[in-house]
Write a structure and sequence with these properties.
It is a single chain. About 30% of the residues lie in helices and about 15% in strands. By secondary structure, the chain is of the alpha/beta class. It has one domain. It has an eight-stranded mixed sheet with strand order 7-6-8-2-9-12-5-13, sandwiched between helices. A three-stranded mixed sheet has the order 1-16-17, covered by helices on one side. Strand 3 and strand 4 form a beta hairpin. It starts with a strand and ends in a 12-residue tail after the last strand. The N terminus is likely disordered.
Length: about 475
Protein backbone atom coordinates (compact mmCIF):
# COMPACT_ATOMS: atom_id res chain seq x y z
CA UNK A 1 0.00 0.00 0.00
CA UNK A 2 1.23 3.47 -0.85
CA UNK A 3 0.19 6.07 1.71
CA UNK A 4 0.04 9.77 0.88
CA UNK A 5 0.47 11.11 4.42
CA UNK A 6 0.23 14.85 4.89
CA UNK A 7 -1.60 17.61 6.65
CA UNK A 8 -4.20 19.51 4.68
CA UNK A 9 -1.70 22.05 3.41
CA UNK A 10 -2.50 24.91 1.02
CA UNK A 11 -3.20 23.65 -2.48
CA UNK A 12 -0.11 23.71 -4.67
CA UNK A 13 2.33 24.04 -1.71
CA UNK A 14 5.46 21.93 -2.21
CA UNK A 15 6.63 19.77 0.75
CA UNK A 16 9.24 21.40 2.94
CA UNK A 17 12.33 19.74 4.37
CA UNK A 18 10.39 19.17 7.59
CA UNK A 19 7.57 17.53 5.59
CA UNK A 20 9.97 15.12 3.90
CA UNK A 21 11.40 14.13 7.29
CA UNK A 22 7.87 13.64 8.60
CA UNK A 23 6.97 11.50 5.59
CA UNK A 24 10.07 9.30 5.71
CA UNK A 25 10.88 8.78 9.39
CA UNK A 26 8.17 6.18 10.12
CA UNK A 27 9.39 4.04 7.24
CA UNK A 28 13.06 4.35 8.29
CA UNK A 29 12.15 3.39 11.86
CA UNK A 30 10.21 0.33 10.74
CA UNK A 31 6.78 1.67 11.62
CA UNK A 32 3.79 -0.65 11.25
CA UNK A 33 2.75 1.17 8.15
CA UNK A 34 1.58 4.78 8.28
CA UNK A 35 3.89 5.42 5.34
CA UNK A 36 4.99 2.74 2.93
CA UNK A 37 6.52 3.05 -0.47
CA UNK A 38 4.97 1.74 -3.66
CA UNK A 39 5.32 -2.01 -4.21
CA UNK A 40 8.47 -2.76 -6.19
CA UNK A 41 6.36 -4.40 -8.90
CA UNK A 42 4.13 -1.37 -9.50
CA UNK A 43 6.53 0.40 -11.85
CA UNK A 44 7.26 -2.77 -13.80
CA UNK A 45 3.65 -3.41 -14.81
CA UNK A 46 2.77 -2.69 -18.43
CA UNK A 47 1.63 0.88 -19.04
CA UNK A 48 2.79 2.29 -15.70
CA UNK A 49 3.71 5.97 -16.04
CA UNK A 50 3.10 6.06 -19.80
CA UNK A 51 0.86 9.13 -19.62
CA UNK A 52 1.67 12.72 -18.76
CA UNK A 53 -2.00 13.68 -18.95
CA UNK A 54 -5.47 12.13 -18.92
CA UNK A 55 -8.28 13.49 -21.11
CA UNK A 56 -11.75 12.15 -20.32
CA UNK A 57 -14.56 12.75 -22.82
CA UNK A 58 -17.72 12.05 -20.83
CA UNK A 59 -20.84 11.10 -22.80
CA UNK A 60 -23.39 11.71 -20.08
CA UNK A 61 -26.81 10.11 -20.16
CA UNK A 62 -25.88 6.57 -21.16
CA UNK A 63 -24.60 6.18 -24.71
CA UNK A 64 -26.01 3.04 -26.31
CA UNK A 65 -23.31 0.43 -26.89
CA UNK A 66 -25.52 -1.33 -29.43
CA UNK A 67 -25.90 1.80 -31.54
CA UNK A 68 -22.25 2.91 -31.45
CA UNK A 69 -19.25 0.66 -30.62
CA UNK A 70 -20.77 -2.79 -30.09
CA UNK A 71 -23.47 -3.31 -32.72
CA UNK A 72 -25.10 -6.71 -33.13
CA UNK A 73 -26.15 -6.82 -36.82
CA UNK A 74 -27.21 -10.48 -36.62
CA UNK A 75 -29.48 -10.01 -33.60
CA UNK A 76 -33.28 -9.74 -33.90
CA UNK A 77 -34.63 -6.33 -34.94
CA UNK A 78 -35.81 -5.51 -31.42
CA UNK A 79 -32.18 -5.86 -30.27
CA UNK A 80 -30.07 -4.57 -33.16
CA UNK A 81 -32.22 -1.46 -33.63
CA UNK A 82 -32.70 0.70 -36.71
CA UNK A 83 -29.07 1.38 -37.62
CA UNK A 84 -26.81 -0.52 -39.94
CA UNK A 85 -23.06 -0.98 -39.57
CA UNK A 86 -20.01 0.04 -41.61
CA UNK A 87 -16.49 -1.36 -41.86
CA UNK A 88 -13.64 0.46 -40.13
CA UNK A 89 -9.91 0.88 -40.66
CA UNK A 90 -9.48 -2.38 -38.72
CA UNK A 91 -10.47 -5.40 -40.85
CA UNK A 92 -13.46 -7.22 -39.43
CA UNK A 93 -14.33 -4.47 -36.96
CA UNK A 94 -17.63 -2.70 -37.60
CA UNK A 95 -19.33 0.26 -35.93
CA UNK A 96 -22.58 2.18 -36.31
CA UNK A 97 -23.19 3.56 -39.80
CA UNK A 98 -23.54 7.08 -38.40
CA UNK A 99 -19.91 7.25 -37.22
CA UNK A 100 -18.06 7.37 -40.57
CA UNK A 101 -15.21 9.61 -39.39
CA UNK A 102 -14.55 7.58 -36.28
CA UNK A 103 -14.64 4.41 -38.39
CA UNK A 104 -11.55 5.67 -40.25
CA UNK A 105 -9.72 6.08 -36.91
CA UNK A 106 -10.46 2.65 -35.48
CA UNK A 107 -6.80 1.72 -35.87
CA UNK A 108 -5.87 4.37 -33.27
CA UNK A 109 -8.14 3.19 -30.45
CA UNK A 110 -9.16 0.21 -28.35
CA UNK A 111 -12.83 -0.43 -27.64
CA UNK A 112 -13.47 -1.91 -24.21
CA UNK A 113 -16.73 -3.82 -24.64
CA UNK A 114 -17.10 -5.34 -21.17
CA UNK A 115 -17.64 -2.43 -18.77
CA UNK A 116 -20.05 -3.46 -16.02
CA UNK A 117 -21.61 -2.38 -12.72
CA UNK A 118 -25.05 -2.42 -11.06
CA UNK A 119 -25.97 1.25 -10.52
CA UNK A 120 -29.01 2.17 -12.61
CA UNK A 121 -29.61 5.89 -12.17
CA UNK A 122 -27.70 8.81 -13.59
CA UNK A 123 -26.66 10.76 -10.51
CA UNK A 124 -25.12 7.90 -8.55
CA UNK A 125 -23.78 6.17 -11.69
CA UNK A 126 -22.05 9.36 -12.85
CA UNK A 127 -20.62 9.65 -9.33
CA UNK A 128 -19.26 6.11 -9.69
CA UNK A 129 -17.73 6.85 -13.08
CA UNK A 130 -16.17 10.17 -12.03
CA UNK A 131 -14.86 9.11 -8.59
CA UNK A 132 -14.29 5.38 -8.95
CA UNK A 133 -16.39 4.86 -5.79
CA UNK A 134 -19.98 3.69 -5.33
CA UNK A 135 -22.37 6.26 -3.90
CA UNK A 136 -24.02 5.34 -0.55
CA UNK A 137 -27.41 5.81 -2.25
CA UNK A 138 -27.03 3.52 -5.23
CA UNK A 139 -29.41 3.98 -8.18
CA UNK A 140 -30.51 7.46 -7.16
CA UNK A 141 -30.06 11.13 -8.11
CA UNK A 142 -28.51 12.60 -4.94
CA UNK A 143 -27.34 16.15 -4.38
CA UNK A 144 -23.60 16.89 -4.01
CA UNK A 145 -22.37 16.89 -0.40
CA UNK A 146 -19.15 17.71 1.39
CA UNK A 147 -18.89 14.07 2.43
CA UNK A 148 -18.74 12.85 -1.18
CA UNK A 149 -15.72 11.07 -2.59
CA UNK A 150 -13.56 13.50 -4.61
CA UNK A 151 -13.54 13.58 -8.39
CA UNK A 152 -10.58 11.70 -9.85
CA UNK A 153 -8.96 14.96 -10.94
CA UNK A 154 -9.30 16.32 -7.39
CA UNK A 155 -7.57 13.22 -6.06
CA UNK A 156 -4.74 13.75 -8.53
CA UNK A 157 -4.36 17.31 -7.27
CA UNK A 158 -4.21 15.94 -3.72
CA UNK A 159 -1.63 13.21 -4.24
CA UNK A 160 0.45 14.88 -6.95
CA UNK A 161 -0.23 18.62 -7.33
CA UNK A 162 1.23 20.06 -10.50
CA UNK A 163 3.92 22.68 -9.87
CA UNK A 164 3.06 24.64 -13.00
CA UNK A 165 -0.65 25.23 -12.41
CA UNK A 166 -2.83 26.27 -9.47
CA UNK A 167 -5.21 23.51 -10.59
CA UNK A 168 -4.18 20.00 -11.65
CA UNK A 169 -7.66 19.26 -13.05
CA UNK A 170 -9.98 21.23 -15.34
CA UNK A 171 -13.55 20.52 -16.39
CA UNK A 172 -14.93 21.81 -19.69
CA UNK A 173 -18.60 22.30 -20.62
CA UNK A 174 -19.83 21.65 -17.10
CA UNK A 175 -21.23 21.39 -14.65
CA UNK A 176 -22.95 18.22 -15.77
CA UNK A 177 -26.68 18.20 -14.99
CA UNK A 178 -28.14 14.90 -13.70
CA UNK A 179 -30.88 15.44 -14.68
CA UNK A 180 -31.55 19.15 -14.04
CA UNK A 181 -29.07 20.07 -11.29
CA UNK A 182 -25.29 19.55 -11.04
CA UNK A 183 -24.75 16.00 -9.86
CA UNK A 184 -22.24 14.68 -7.31
CA UNK A 185 -18.80 13.39 -8.24
CA UNK A 186 -17.65 16.54 -10.06
CA UNK A 187 -16.16 18.29 -7.02
CA UNK A 188 -13.56 18.09 -4.27
CA UNK A 189 -15.89 16.32 -1.83
CA UNK A 190 -14.15 15.46 1.44
CA UNK A 191 -11.04 17.31 0.30
CA UNK A 192 -12.86 20.65 0.33
CA UNK A 193 -13.72 23.27 -2.25
CA UNK A 194 -10.06 24.13 -2.77
CA UNK A 195 -9.73 20.82 -4.62
CA UNK A 196 -12.67 21.34 -6.97
CA UNK A 197 -11.52 20.98 -10.57
CA UNK A 198 -11.77 24.37 -12.27
CA UNK A 199 -14.87 24.28 -14.51
CA UNK A 200 -14.63 26.49 -17.59
CA UNK A 201 -18.31 26.03 -18.47
CA UNK A 202 -19.47 26.52 -22.04
CA UNK A 203 -16.62 27.64 -24.30
CA UNK A 204 -18.29 28.05 -27.70
CA UNK A 205 -17.61 31.80 -27.60
CA UNK A 206 -14.68 31.55 -25.20
CA UNK A 207 -14.79 31.21 -21.44
CA UNK A 208 -16.02 33.96 -19.15
CA UNK A 209 -12.99 33.28 -16.93
CA UNK A 210 -10.69 34.77 -19.55
CA UNK A 211 -12.37 38.18 -19.36
CA UNK A 212 -12.01 38.25 -15.61
CA UNK A 213 -8.31 37.35 -15.86
CA UNK A 214 -7.37 40.33 -18.03
CA UNK A 215 -5.63 42.81 -15.77
CA UNK A 216 -6.81 46.41 -15.89
CA UNK A 217 -4.21 48.79 -17.29
CA UNK A 218 -4.47 50.94 -14.16
CA UNK A 219 -3.64 47.97 -11.90
CA UNK A 220 0.13 47.39 -12.01
CA UNK A 221 1.69 44.19 -10.71
CA UNK A 222 2.84 45.91 -7.50
CA UNK A 223 -0.70 46.96 -6.56
CA UNK A 224 -2.00 43.49 -7.37
CA UNK A 225 0.66 42.00 -5.12
CA UNK A 226 -0.29 44.38 -2.33
CA UNK A 227 -3.94 43.36 -2.63
CA UNK A 228 -2.99 39.68 -2.49
CA UNK A 229 -0.89 40.25 0.62
CA UNK A 230 -3.73 42.15 2.30
CA UNK A 231 -6.18 39.31 1.57
CA UNK A 232 -3.71 36.81 3.06
CA UNK A 233 -3.36 38.85 6.25
CA UNK A 234 -7.11 39.29 6.66
CA UNK A 235 -7.69 35.57 6.16
CA UNK A 236 -4.96 34.67 8.62
CA UNK A 237 -6.46 36.96 11.26
CA UNK A 238 -10.04 35.81 10.66
CA UNK A 239 -9.44 32.07 10.42
CA UNK A 240 -6.44 31.62 12.71
CA UNK A 241 -6.18 28.01 13.77
CA UNK A 242 -9.19 26.89 11.77
CA UNK A 243 -8.86 23.57 9.93
CA UNK A 244 -12.46 23.37 8.72
CA UNK A 245 -12.88 22.45 5.03
CA UNK A 246 -14.86 25.61 4.33
CA UNK A 247 -12.04 27.74 5.71
CA UNK A 248 -9.28 25.91 3.87
CA UNK A 249 -11.39 25.90 0.72
CA UNK A 250 -11.92 29.67 0.83
CA UNK A 251 -8.21 30.26 1.28
CA UNK A 252 -7.35 27.91 -1.54
CA UNK A 253 -9.86 29.45 -3.95
CA UNK A 254 -8.50 32.96 -3.35
CA UNK A 255 -4.94 31.78 -3.75
CA UNK A 256 -5.76 29.86 -6.93
CA UNK A 257 -7.40 32.94 -8.42
CA UNK A 258 -4.23 34.99 -7.91
CA UNK A 259 -2.06 32.15 -9.22
CA UNK A 260 -4.16 31.92 -12.38
CA UNK A 261 -3.52 35.62 -13.01
CA UNK A 262 0.18 34.86 -13.02
CA UNK A 263 0.06 31.71 -15.19
CA UNK A 264 0.21 32.95 -18.80
CA UNK A 265 0.25 29.51 -20.43
CA UNK A 266 -3.10 28.64 -18.83
CA UNK A 267 -4.62 32.02 -19.65
CA UNK A 268 -3.55 31.58 -23.26
CA UNK A 269 -5.08 28.08 -23.35
CA UNK A 270 -8.42 29.59 -22.30
CA UNK A 271 -8.42 31.86 -25.37
CA UNK A 272 -10.03 29.59 -27.94
CA UNK A 273 -10.21 32.53 -30.37
CA UNK A 274 -6.48 32.01 -31.00
CA UNK A 275 -7.33 28.89 -33.00
CA UNK A 276 -7.44 29.22 -36.80
CA UNK A 277 -10.96 29.22 -38.21
CA UNK A 278 -10.35 25.97 -40.11
CA UNK A 279 -9.41 24.19 -36.88
CA UNK A 280 -12.52 25.42 -35.11
CA UNK A 281 -14.59 24.36 -38.11
CA UNK A 282 -12.95 20.94 -38.05
CA UNK A 283 -14.14 20.32 -34.48
CA UNK A 284 -17.56 21.80 -35.25
CA UNK A 285 -18.94 25.19 -34.32
CA UNK A 286 -21.22 23.72 -31.68
CA UNK A 287 -20.97 23.39 -27.93
CA UNK A 288 -19.52 19.87 -27.69
CA UNK A 289 -17.10 20.34 -30.60
CA UNK A 290 -15.59 23.50 -29.14
CA UNK A 291 -15.40 21.80 -25.74
CA UNK A 292 -13.26 19.06 -27.29
CA UNK A 293 -11.05 21.74 -28.85
CA UNK A 294 -10.64 23.43 -25.47
CA UNK A 295 -9.71 20.06 -24.04
CA UNK A 296 -6.92 19.74 -26.59
CA UNK A 297 -5.70 23.27 -25.81
CA UNK A 298 -5.48 22.47 -22.10
CA UNK A 299 -3.61 19.23 -22.76
CA UNK A 300 -1.23 21.10 -25.04
CA UNK A 301 -0.62 23.61 -22.22
CA UNK A 302 0.41 20.69 -20.01
CA UNK A 303 -2.64 20.32 -17.75
CA UNK A 304 -2.45 16.80 -16.26
CA UNK A 305 -6.21 16.05 -16.01
CA UNK A 306 -8.99 17.36 -18.26
CA UNK A 307 -12.61 16.19 -18.27
CA UNK A 308 -14.73 17.31 -21.22
CA UNK A 309 -18.45 16.83 -20.66
CA UNK A 310 -19.50 16.16 -24.24
CA UNK A 311 -23.10 16.58 -23.12
CA UNK A 312 -23.63 18.99 -20.24
CA UNK A 313 -27.17 17.63 -19.73
CA UNK A 314 -28.15 13.98 -19.70
CA UNK A 315 -31.57 14.69 -21.23
CA UNK A 316 -31.90 18.33 -22.22
CA UNK A 317 -34.10 17.38 -25.18
CA UNK A 318 -37.06 17.25 -22.77
CA UNK A 319 -36.86 21.03 -22.41
CA UNK A 320 -35.15 22.15 -25.64
CA UNK A 321 -36.71 20.12 -28.43
CA UNK A 322 -34.70 20.45 -31.63
CA UNK A 323 -31.73 22.26 -30.00
CA UNK A 324 -28.90 19.81 -30.58
CA UNK A 325 -26.55 21.46 -28.10
CA UNK A 326 -28.93 20.51 -25.29
CA UNK A 327 -29.31 16.83 -26.15
CA UNK A 328 -27.98 14.04 -23.93
CA UNK A 329 -27.70 10.27 -24.37
CA UNK A 330 -30.62 9.43 -22.05
CA UNK A 331 -32.73 8.16 -24.92
CA UNK A 332 -35.71 6.40 -23.31
CA UNK A 333 -37.75 7.50 -26.32
CA UNK A 334 -36.92 8.58 -29.85
CA UNK A 335 -33.48 6.98 -29.64
CA UNK A 336 -32.95 6.47 -33.36
CA UNK A 337 -34.27 9.88 -34.42
CA UNK A 338 -32.31 11.70 -31.74
CA UNK A 339 -29.08 9.79 -32.26
CA UNK A 340 -29.19 10.11 -36.05
CA UNK A 341 -30.32 13.73 -36.17
CA UNK A 342 -28.61 15.30 -33.15
CA UNK A 343 -26.20 13.16 -31.14
CA UNK A 344 -24.15 10.99 -33.49
CA UNK A 345 -23.25 13.59 -36.14
CA UNK A 346 -21.75 15.90 -33.52
CA UNK A 347 -20.09 13.07 -31.64
CA UNK A 348 -18.57 11.70 -34.84
CA UNK A 349 -17.20 15.10 -35.81
CA UNK A 350 -16.02 16.39 -32.43
CA UNK A 351 -14.43 13.24 -31.04
CA UNK A 352 -12.78 12.26 -34.33
CA UNK A 353 -11.30 15.77 -34.68
CA UNK A 354 -9.91 15.49 -31.15
CA UNK A 355 -8.22 12.15 -31.84
CA UNK A 356 -6.78 13.35 -35.15
CA UNK A 357 -5.57 16.65 -33.74
CA UNK A 358 -3.87 15.05 -30.73
CA UNK A 359 -2.12 12.58 -33.04
CA UNK A 360 -0.97 15.21 -35.53
CA UNK A 361 0.47 17.37 -32.75
CA UNK A 362 2.32 14.46 -31.17
CA UNK A 363 0.22 14.69 -28.01
CA UNK A 364 -1.46 11.30 -28.25
CA UNK A 365 1.70 9.38 -27.39
CA UNK A 366 1.65 10.57 -23.78
CA UNK A 367 -2.02 11.55 -23.33
CA UNK A 368 -4.45 8.84 -22.26
CA UNK A 369 -7.81 9.61 -23.90
CA UNK A 370 -10.89 7.90 -22.48
CA UNK A 371 -14.38 8.27 -23.93
CA UNK A 372 -16.93 6.96 -21.46
CA UNK A 373 -20.30 7.51 -19.85
CA UNK A 374 -22.03 6.30 -16.73
CA UNK A 375 -23.63 3.21 -18.34
CA UNK A 376 -25.17 1.97 -21.59
CA UNK A 377 -28.66 1.19 -22.89
CA UNK A 378 -30.85 -1.89 -22.65
CA UNK A 379 -30.67 -4.59 -25.33
CA UNK A 380 -34.39 -4.53 -26.07
CA UNK A 381 -35.93 -1.56 -27.86
CA UNK A 382 -39.14 -0.48 -26.10
CA UNK A 383 -41.53 2.41 -25.64
CA UNK A 384 -41.45 4.10 -22.25
CA UNK A 385 -44.62 6.18 -21.99
CA UNK A 386 -43.49 7.96 -18.82
CA UNK A 387 -40.87 9.96 -20.71
CA UNK A 388 -41.33 13.00 -22.89
CA UNK A 389 -40.75 12.71 -26.61
CA UNK A 390 -42.47 12.02 -29.84
CA UNK A 391 -43.38 8.55 -28.64
CA UNK A 392 -41.09 6.45 -30.86
CA UNK A 393 -39.07 3.62 -29.30
CA UNK A 394 -36.03 4.00 -27.06
CA UNK A 395 -33.83 2.00 -24.72
CA UNK A 396 -33.81 1.93 -20.92
CA UNK A 397 -30.82 2.31 -18.60
CA UNK A 398 -28.39 -0.61 -18.67
CA UNK A 399 -25.23 -0.93 -16.57
CA UNK A 400 -24.52 -4.65 -16.82
CA UNK A 401 -22.57 -4.21 -20.07
CA UNK A 402 -21.46 -1.16 -22.05
CA UNK A 403 -18.51 0.19 -24.01
CA UNK A 404 -15.62 2.59 -23.39
CA UNK A 405 -13.01 3.80 -25.90
CA UNK A 406 -9.35 4.39 -25.04
CA UNK A 407 -6.44 5.79 -27.03
CA UNK A 408 -2.91 7.07 -26.55
CA UNK A 409 -0.23 6.65 -23.86
CA UNK A 410 0.68 3.11 -24.85
CA UNK A 411 -2.88 1.78 -25.22
CA UNK A 412 -3.00 -1.05 -27.75
CA UNK A 413 -4.32 0.29 -31.05
CA UNK A 414 -6.82 -1.21 -33.47
CA UNK A 415 -8.12 -3.66 -30.91
CA UNK A 416 -11.01 -4.54 -28.67
CA UNK A 417 -10.86 -5.72 -25.08
CA UNK A 418 -13.49 -7.85 -23.39
CA UNK A 419 -16.45 -9.40 -25.12
CA UNK A 420 -20.19 -9.04 -24.75
CA UNK A 421 -22.86 -11.65 -25.40
CA UNK A 422 -25.08 -11.77 -28.51
CA UNK A 423 -27.27 -8.93 -27.26
CA UNK A 424 -24.53 -6.76 -25.70
CA UNK A 425 -26.33 -7.41 -22.41
CA UNK A 426 -23.62 -9.05 -20.29
CA UNK A 427 -19.85 -9.50 -20.52
CA UNK A 428 -18.68 -12.90 -21.72
CA UNK A 429 -15.02 -12.22 -21.00
CA UNK A 430 -12.79 -9.79 -19.08
CA UNK A 431 -15.36 -7.69 -17.15
CA UNK A 432 -14.10 -4.25 -16.11
CA UNK A 433 -15.65 -2.10 -13.38
CA UNK A 434 -15.52 1.72 -13.07
CA UNK A 435 -13.10 1.20 -10.18
CA UNK A 436 -10.83 -0.84 -12.43
CA UNK A 437 -10.96 1.81 -15.12
CA UNK A 438 -10.15 4.56 -12.61
CA UNK A 439 -7.22 2.51 -11.33
CA UNK A 440 -6.02 2.16 -14.94
CA UNK A 441 -6.01 5.93 -15.42
CA UNK A 442 -3.91 6.50 -12.30
CA UNK A 443 -1.67 3.59 -13.28
CA UNK A 444 -0.99 5.27 -16.63
CA UNK A 445 -0.03 8.45 -14.76
CA UNK A 446 2.47 6.49 -12.66
CA UNK A 447 0.39 6.45 -9.46
CA UNK A 448 -0.09 2.99 -7.88
CA UNK A 449 -3.72 2.08 -7.41
CA UNK A 450 -3.21 1.31 -3.71
CA UNK A 451 -2.11 4.89 -3.00
CA UNK A 452 -3.97 6.53 -0.11
CA UNK A 453 -4.74 10.15 0.63
CA UNK A 454 -5.97 11.81 3.82
CA UNK A 455 -8.91 14.19 4.15
CA UNK A 456 -8.98 17.19 6.51
CA UNK A 457 -9.75 14.93 9.49
CA UNK A 458 -6.69 12.76 8.84
CA UNK A 459 -8.82 9.82 7.71
CA UNK A 460 -7.03 7.76 5.02
CA UNK A 461 -8.85 6.67 1.87
CA UNK A 462 -7.63 4.63 -1.05
CA UNK A 463 -7.67 6.61 -4.29
CA UNK A 464 -9.65 3.87 -6.08
CA UNK A 465 -11.16 0.49 -5.26
CA UNK A 466 -10.24 -1.33 -8.45
CA UNK A 467 -7.26 -2.95 -10.16
CA UNK A 468 -5.49 -1.56 -13.26
CA UNK A 469 -6.29 -3.36 -16.50
CA UNK A 470 -2.70 -3.63 -17.71
CA UNK A 471 -3.68 -5.78 -20.70
CA UNK A 472 -5.09 -2.66 -22.34
CA UNK A 473 -1.53 -1.46 -22.92
CA UNK A 474 0.74 -2.73 -25.63
Amino acid sequence: MTRFQTRLEPVGRLPSRRDWLRFSMPAMLGSSGLVRTAPPSASTLTGFGQAKSVLVVFTSGGQSQLDTWDPKPNAPAEVRGAFGTIPTSVPGFRVCEHMPRLATLQHRVTVLRSMTHDDLDHGSACYLALTGQSHPRKSSNPQPKGTDAPALGAILHRVRPDRRFPHSAFHVNGPMLTPSEPGPGQFGGVLGRGYDPLDLGEVTDGTALLTGMNLRPDLPAMRLGDRSELVNRLQAATHAGSRLPATDGQRALVRQAYELLHTPRVRDAFDIAQEPAKVRDRYGRFRAGQACLMGRRLIEAGVPWVTVFFNHSIRGQDFYVGESDQYGWDTHNDIFEDMKGHLLPRFDQGFSALLEDLHERGLLKDTLVVCMGEFGRAPLVANEKNFAGRGSPGRKHWAACYSVVLAGAGITTGASYGRSDKQAAYPLADPVTPGDLSATLFHALGIPSDTHYEDFTGRPSRIVTGTPVTKLFS
